[in-house]
């Protein structure tokens, strides 16, 4: 950790204390971000010339790392750890406001996983849950099952039960975990509902079939195959999206 002992002394005396106040203040506020570009840096810190400031930090200090062929950058882990300790000394209201700014920036760009994380840090659990629900499908299709499971475990049951699309997304996440039996149960519940669309049934059948395989219940597959919609029916447009 860079919060105690010789490392903290190094950051305070050799680096942090020598920075102009506008740069040190901006870095403390940017420490809530895992990585950022000039636009996100500006949205959170309010810096008027973010690119010029970032270029100066990269040029004059070892606090920042940049990737090749990308405009995204991140704080060095030790520097971020030290700066986070300074961030925690800011007034609670200011800390919440900074997390809210970051959450709004991510949500405007449909990066709902990051938006949910920042909303949660701001103490807005309801907004965090809303963003988390919207992030589940993207996380699961990107193979980030662990992250999807973490958010799924935090969502209220009433939110999931009241949204058919969200129930199927939840089932798809559980299907790739040790809870594939739960995924199978959700998919079968959806299949038994009389007013589901053809497309929704097809999605539920895919989840049910995969869950049955993972749960070692291969005897269920013939029934699922028999209930599969015809190609003509599956190609009809639908407003349901999962």
What does this structure look like?
This protein is an all-alpha fold. It is 67% helix and 2% strand. It has helices at residues 5-15, 21-30, 38-45, 50-60, 77-87, 92-108, 112-121, 125-141, 145-154, 157-161, 164-175, 180-192, 198-214, 221-226, 231-234, and strands at residues 64-66, 73-75. The chain has a two-stranded antiparallel ribbon with strand order 1-2. α6 packs antiparallel against α7, α8 (125-141) packs antiparallel against α9 (145-154) and α11 (164-175) packs antiparallel against α12. The chain is elongated and about 70 Å long. The two termini are 42 Å apart.
Query: What best-fitting shape do the alpha-carbon axes yield?
Result: elongated
Cα distance, first to last residue?
42 Å
Low-confidence stretches: 238-242
* DSSP strand tally: 2
Question: What's the layout of helices and strands?
Answer:
Blueprint: H1 5-15, H2 21-30, H3 38-45, H4 50-60, E1 64-66, E2 73-75, H5 77-87, H6 92-108, H7 112-121, H8 125-141, H9 145-154, H10 157-161, H11 164-175, H12 180-192, H13 198-214, H14 221-226, H15 231-234
Antiparallel strand pairs: 1-2
Helix pairs in contact: 3-6, 6-7, 7-8, 8-9, 8-11, 11-12, 11-13, 12-13
């Amino acid at each position: 950790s860079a919060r105690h002992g010789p490392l903290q002394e190094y950051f305070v005396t050799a680096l942090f204390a020598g920075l102009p106040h506008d740069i040190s203040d901006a870095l403390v506020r940017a420490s809530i971000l895992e990585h950022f570009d000039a636009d996100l840096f500006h949205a959170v810190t309010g810096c008027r010339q973010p690119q010029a400031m970032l270029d100066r930090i990269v040029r004059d200090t070892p606090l920042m790392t940049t990737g090749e062929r990308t405009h995204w950058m991140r704080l060095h882990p030790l520097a971020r750890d030290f700066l986070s300790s300074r961030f925690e000394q800011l007034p609670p209201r200011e800390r919440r406001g900074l997390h809210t700014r970051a959450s709004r920036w991510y949500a405007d760009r449909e990066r709902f996983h990051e938006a949910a994380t920042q909303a949660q840090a701001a103490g807005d659990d309801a907004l965090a849950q809303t963003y988390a629900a919207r992030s589940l499908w993207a996380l699961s299709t990107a193979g980030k099952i662990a992250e999807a499971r973490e958010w799924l475990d935090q969502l209220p049951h009433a939110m999931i039960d009241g949204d058919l699309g969200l129930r199927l997304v939840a089932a798809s996440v559980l299907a790739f975990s040790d809870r594939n039996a739960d995924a199978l149960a959700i998919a079968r519940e959806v299949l038994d509902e009389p007013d589901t669309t053809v497309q929704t049934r097809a999605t539920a059948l895919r989840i049910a079939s995969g869950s049955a395989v993972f749960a070692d219940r291969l005897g269920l597959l013939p029934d699922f195959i028999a209930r599969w919609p015809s190609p003509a029916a599956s190609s009809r447009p639908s407003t349901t999206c999962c």
